[in-house]
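Request from the bench team (R.T.):
"We need a structural guess for the complex before ordering more zinc ion. Sequence and SMILES attached. Just send the tokens back."

Command: build protein-zinc ion structure.
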Amino acid sequence: MFAYATESLHLSEAEAYLRIAAARAARRHPVLLEMLADGRLHLSAMAKLAPHLTDANRERVLERAAHRTKRQIEELVAELQPRPDVAPAIRKLPVRRPEQEHTRPAAPPPVAAPATAARATQAELRPDAVAPGAPAAPPRPAVVQPIAPARYQVRFTASAELHEKLNRLRGLMKSSIPDGDLGALIEDAVSEKLERLEARRFAKTNRPRKSPEETDTTPSSRHIPAPIRRAVYARDGGRCCFVDRNGNRCTARDGLEFHHRHGYARGGAHSVANLELQCPVHNQYLAELEYGRDRMQRYRKGVREEMAPYAVASLAASGRALEQDQLRPDAVGPYLTPQTGPGAIAVEPEPVSRLSASGTL
Ligand SMILES: [Zn+2]
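Reply to R.T.: structure attached below.
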């Protein structure tokens, strides 16, 4: 079957495996085929669920699996068969120094990293302890995998600098986290950073000084008052408010901006009722609807003078409007410049030392 799928149907190995696994599962549970046909289940979901489906749980599990993303299916599987927490571990990855790629093509055999993730000793973790001449492992993408309800295994490659900082943090937090648990350290650091960023961008605080009712919402300046930003963020649940034609709300939570329903440039107030959170893509879409696609495109090509008032509006509409230097009419609006592009790619030298960290959060 595998040979037929790869050699006759010219499927990739992964695609072939997926279809074979799905077909075998459908033989045991024919309802899977119905769900695949009407779009309630995708092939990846079938393959992931198959080992956990029984006659007893089939109906209940498949009802919950309908129309779920691959990530949601993984969470469901983790619930069906929870795995124990993994121990925090840091292990060194083999590295190659850039100059040796050319001068020493016949490098000695690589020094293998420990086969099992184990708590590395301080001496093993020193960057200079890494064997020279070992080939660089290709950078592996970070992995966030559900292993049980509300438990995730996180695996990523860290720089030597991050590893050193974690050691320093571990020392400083000895009293609150005596065992130096990596997951707890990272959770603490991330929580503090989140608190600071959310306080700055969305004015989140436990001690608000003013309520939205006490706040002047006339758009006399571009600054959106903190009580208003706070109330809008809380009301919108920190998520983009865009709702498509089918009534589905956008799930984006990244780079959220404040959007004036009645445009700021047209006199729209900084009121809770007139503001909503939008992701950059939908904020741009709404700006095009309001000001016209042609004008927005011309603006992006550099006709800034003509669109300056709108640029100010867009900046004021975003959380980033808080920084005064970003409020200048000549400043670039958050949705007016592509976030990515040739100029945005930072080319960094190959790191001297890479470390791989993993644990449960
Ligand atoms: Zn959105």
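Two things stood out. Residues 89-180+351-360 form one domain. The longest helix spans residues 182-202.
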